[in-house]
Amino acid sequence: MKTRRGVSTGGFTLVELLMAVVVGLVLLGAIWSAVVAGQRSSAGIERKVTTGQDARAALEIMGAEIRMASFNPLYARGLWVDPTSCSPAANQGWRGIQEAAASSVTIEMDLDPDGFCGSSGSEIIRYAYHATSERITRETIRCTSGIRTSSGAQPFLGPILSNPAVR
To answer: How crowded is the C-beta side of 158, counted as CA atoms within 13 Å?
Structure first.
């Protein structure tokens, strides 16, 4: 800036300082909004990756149990039971899959080789898909002396009941 005599004082005017502050604030606002958008995007991607990993692990467990269906190390006859009544299955030829429907499957295996299916935990497993809640449940069934006991349908894969937005 020059004075009336033509000598430079080397300072800034108030208008120049205000313009510099406004430009700086606009730049800071743009950088801040970009950082916030990046964090939101990163969190969304992380949720999707975690969901994929959880689903993969659950389906690997389910696949391993389905591959074990009909496991009968003693080659026992009359091993398979009706999972609803714990009586011998009407069709022993169905072996380890006594129920297979569009929304459920029940698998049986003799994990503790005693010649009885359902005598210990995880020998009869029922998976069911519930379309209304979009979830898969897993239930273990025991048949001891013809008496059916169940773990109840436990959440296996799908949205959390207390917070359906979380999957």
So the answer is: 18
Q: CA 68, CA 105: separation in Å to the nearest integer?
A: 13
160 band by pLDDT with thresholds 50, 70 and 90: low
54, pLDDT greater than 60: yes
DSSP string, 76-135: -SS--B-TTT-SBPS-GGGTTEEEE-SSEEEEE--SSSSS-TTSSTTSEEEEEEETTTTE
What's the whole-model pTM score? 0.70
- Residue identified by tokens 């005599």 is 5
- Whether 162 shows a pLDDT value over 80: the answer reads no
In angstroms, the CA 23 to CA 149 distance is 72
CB 66 within 8 A of CB 126: no
Of residues 9, 160, 138, 167, the one with CA closest to residue 64: 138
For residue 156, the SS3 value is strand
* Residue-wise pLDDT tens digits, 140-155: 999 988 899 998 888 8
Q: Cβ distance 151 to 139 under 8 Å?
A: yes
